[in-house]
TrEMBL record:
It comes from the Bacteria. One of its GO terms (molecular function) is identical protein binding. The lineage of its organism: Bacteria, Bacillati, Actinomycetota, Actinomycetes, Mycobacteriales. Pfam families: Glucosamine_iso. Keywords: Carbohydrate metabolism, Hydrolase. It comes from Mycobacterium aquaticum. Residues 33-228 form the Glucosamine/galactosamine-6-phosphate isomerase domain. This is Glucosamine/galactosamine-6-phosphate isomerase domain-containing protein.
Amino acid sequence: MSPTARVLVVDDDEFGTAAADVVLGLLPADEPRLGIATGGTPMPLYAELARRAQRGEIDLSAAYLIALDEYVGLGAQDCLSYSAYVHTHVAVPLGIAADNVLVPDGLAPDPNAEAEAYEQRIDDLGGVDVQIAGIGSNGHLAFNEPGSPLDSTTRVVALSGQTRSDNARFFDSRSEVPHDAITQGLATICRARAVVLLARGPEKAAALAAALAGPVSTEVPASVLQRHPAVTVIADRSAATELPDRLETRARNRL
Ligand code: GLP
């Protein structure tokens, strides 16, 4: 792991507050650009940000939200799209206007052109200040599946069988899970100024350990974060069980 990485291991009931503290501590005050991961893992973080906004403790209404990925074939009106997720769980509760929300268009007639344009849109905005990321049980980062080039940029990818099975819980059946997605690439993600990697649950333990303590390898896409100079990892205890002692010890000493 990069010498500047921090690893914070927390109880599940403090996950949201710990993650919110870290993210808010890293965000610049002026027009922050927050990279949004979807999925179940960051939900306690988004709920905590919403609570703080509702109590008037924070104001992120001028923030930009930049999604990591989107399913090909699902549009913003589809409640299972990542666009709907970002609006429902983050933009609306934080009072962020739709114009400030970037998500690849899953219904674009030319998904490859949309992927290229999305990469450009992120650059035009000045990049991401803080990227929230989760990790797949197979080590994927966003929808960069095992085998993804470490220097990849935003593109159309085919989802692995493992990922489609993992994500089937959000759909009526596995057959409804799209086969393709538009995802920021590993190089795109690594251009964020800071990355906050979140992991919850025992099914993430092996992937998290491989990503943080194994070799940097295309087979474990999240391992690319070892090359990033400003990564904070927040894991609940069940996701941290396979981390080598040296990582957790450093965390306890530093945080
Ligand atoms: C999904 C998303 C990722 C997410 C990961 C883990 O497929 N594309 O961005 O981080 O897989 O999801 P979850 O948090 O639901 O386990």
